[in-house]
Amino acid sequence: MEDECEFCRIVAGDRSAHVLYEDDRTIAFLDANPAVRGHSLVVPRVHEQELLAVDEAMSAAVFDSVRTVANALEAVLDPDGFSVFHTSGPLVGTVDHAHVHLLPRTVDDDVSLSLFRDRLESDDASTLATRVRSSL
After folding, report:
1. Calpha distance 48→52 (Å, rounded)
2. Rg of the chain over CA atoms, in angstroms?
3. Is the pLDDT reported for residue 93 higher than 70?
4. CA 91, chain centre distance (Å)
5. What does the DSSP 8-state code read for residue 66?
6. Overall pTM > 0.85
7. Does the pLDDT of residue 115 top 80, yes or no?
8. Surface-to-core class of residue 96, CB atoms within 10 Å of its CB (0-12 exposed, 13-18 middle, 19+ buried)
9. Average of pLDDT values for 18-27?
10. Measured at the alpha carbon of residue 13, what is the angle toward residues 7 and 19, in degrees to the nearest 5?
11. Which DSSP letter does residue 97 get?
């Protein structure tokens, strides 16, 4: 546990949160600053800054919990869909504890996760795919 980490403090029970789900490896709670009603966070119980750095079992546990919470939110809120995302590195925001955002979405919500899109260039795609495959 990191003393200064607000998510570690939630895991330890030293900070209050509206917990939706917990098991031996993860905890899910409502985001204190939600983008939409039901906006939830799923976090590993161990302090890890980078979700991509956790072992395979922990990664699976986090996403199993995402599915469990999404199913419950689906039953309660009946959203039109979900946005599920994780951000890493310096883009992660204000809490340096790995977490996944789970947002129940409706067609008329104000959430914008739009990406500027470009056309995939065949030569660049082939080069990139080859390089990535060779690093696996």
Report:
1. 9
2. 17
3. no
4. 13
5. H
6. yes
7. no
8. middle
9. 97
10. 70
11. S
Q: Report how far residue 3's alpha carbon sits from residue 111's, in angstroms, rounded to the nearest whole number.
A: 32
**Cβ contacts of residue 76 below 8 Å, gap of 6+?**
38
The residues facing 40 across adjacent strands are: 30, 102
* CA-wise closest residue to 69 among 5, 133, 19: 19
Longest dimension (CA), the chain: 53
53: left (phi over 0), alpha (psi -120 to 50) or beta: alpha
Dist. CA 10–CA 29, nearest whole Å: 9
Query: 39, 47, 97, 99: which is the annotated catalytic residue?
Result: 99
Residue 90 has a pLDDT of: 67
H runs (alpha helix) in the chain? 6-12, 56-77, 122-135
What the block records as the tokens of 123 is 């030569």
97 catalytic, yes or no?
no
